[in-house]
């Protein structure tokens, strides 16, 4: 890992921003406008309407008519999100690609900052940065100090294995198109963790960059995207995260230095994360079966999970310490968020 001062962008590269959407017409103008609001780069936007049923396709058509940089692809039948992602990205003409959900948005000049790093460091295949959650209209931010952080690909993978979870959202990522093409698209086997698999695959092929300081994207907070707040959804997501690690080290990361050790670390980390989630959900009132399911999952993932302090912490959530559990876990996530803001992991 090395810190660097930002360098200016020397040319106007072309970046393709793919905006998949289904019935998100009310959000689409904000998303597209944010992609076009970038200085010093050429932007093409590809909207992929996945057979919307609420009239949202009319919004997409109007945006394509108003902006010459915008192209609209209309599916004749609903293809679901992974196939829609891959369809849009397969049409990219830019040297760099961005997947921007129609309910999210980019910050002003975020692409300018990301492409400056990618242009200055051809060894970097993926760049990401800080994200701001929002409701309604995206907030405005004043200028702030910017710095670059470059991770060697295998070093970044190692750190992610210690985390046991996906450290990146999605709208803040810019990927070199040659790296994306080499990966071959999002894997439909991982509908809830396909982005995490993509980031690991990219890091097996190239280094990873992080833009510190200014926020790079906005992630909209609304009921439709809060899958992990559902008690059953947490188990599904944790299972896919575990399976992503396993698949990655069989196919893409098997020859990374220390691959066996990293996979072992990842399994322990996933088990720990599932137990922390179990503790918090139980303290928040989840049924007892949720704790039991996540504990079983942890034990299947890492054989000695039942002997860990995290297991005992999850057990405490069934007793009269729920307020303390909630307060501690809230603090834990604040610390994690702060660390991610500083170093990206």
Automatic annotation (TrEMBL):
Pfam families: Glycos_transf_2. Keywords: Glycosyltransferase, Transferase. The keyword Kinase does not apply. One of its GO terms (molecular function) is glycosyltransferase activity. Residues 16-150 form the Glycosyltransferase 2-like domain. Belongs to the glycosyltransferase 2 family. This is Glycosyltransferase. It comes from Microbacterium rhizomatis.
